[in-house]
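Form 12-C: Joint structure prediction
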Amino acid sequence: MLAKTSAITLALATTAFAQTEVVWLKDFASARAMAFAQHRPLCVLFRCEA
Amino acid sequence: MHGQLVHAPKELVEATQHYVCVRITDMQNVDVRAMRFDFDLTMAIVLMNADGTIYHRYGTRDGKDPLSWTSIASFSALLQQTLNDHQDYERAPTPPLPHEPMRAIDLPPLAKKIAQGQRLDCVHCHTINDSEYAWAQKEGRYQADDRWLYPEPARIGITMNATDQSLLSLVADSSAAADAGLQAGDRVTQLGVQPRVRTIADLQWALHNTSAATTSVQITFARGDVAMTATLKLKAGWKHCSFADYAWRPYKWNLSPSLGCGGTRLTAEELRAIGEAPSAFAWKVSYFADWGERAARGTAPLKAGIQKDDVVLAIDGRRDFTSVDEVHAFVALKKQSGEVLELQLLRGKQRITAKLLLPE
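Section 2 - Result
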């Protein structure tokens, strides 16, 4: 699982990171509702699957 | 940043725990009236309140390196700092005014394609730019200066620290920033529409929303513990950048004129084989534009006699390009439709001059 990279894009968007260390929701409306209810800020990552 | 581990950068993981994280891979249903950032980017991050207030933008780049202004260190720090901004904001929220949402697929050019039965597998970020450009052109709203998107800090004469991104690391002599008295080590706190600058993208957002015709803009900064304010005097053309700095932007494909053809840069070995210095710039024609709404563009180079595999040695006598993208930026930003461009070509061992009537 450990791999070297020069890209934060990889760190943020690779399957390994995206799925194991941080829960990235897929639906903005749900995320927004959760953030609203919990008074938490939103971190919105725009990144294609490719 | 180079060589860091993909797996579990601890400071980043910890910082994200305070956030509701969401990843958007398709812009189709994003409200493009509310969610604005540099759509030319292949990755962007927005930190925001659930009420729609955007605190910070992150993920921009310079003309040379897509990773120039992104790092785990800078992003982790931003996440931590923004928690304070969020707490401050929640004490006295000022939500954006209500507006009629516009999803990307509601933009008229995209809506038209859908109505015509065209299937959209994925709406990329740059597709928003393409659609907004086409819409503005059709309605006669497009201004030539609109192409100067998200000006880099260098446009006002400053270089920001890539890790501590509100910190000035360099102020260029005789620049707007220097004339306003800014110095290396100052920390930018506010500029234009951006109430709290923490990132280079924040600064670019402020500059993007400053009209090209504006002659002055107020900047607030801290020198040590002292808050200071100055006025940046902006000269005509202050938003412009070099062709090389513009080259990475997909936005250039919208602009007119266009070469109507493209290709790849010759390698050092290929240059040697044709008797050119390995450091020279030349490129080989590999395609003619024959797709999409501007398919006609590809006929112009064919009419000029240009052929696939021709090597382009010079354009209007210029050989000082660093990439084929820069050539495209040069044509789009410098030339006019209907203008004749002179291309020095090598076809086998034969040198040819082609005169290309630039298409729309």
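Section 3 - Comments
The CA atoms of residues 109 and 183 of chain B lie 46 Å apart. The two ends of chain B are 42 Å apart (CA to CA).
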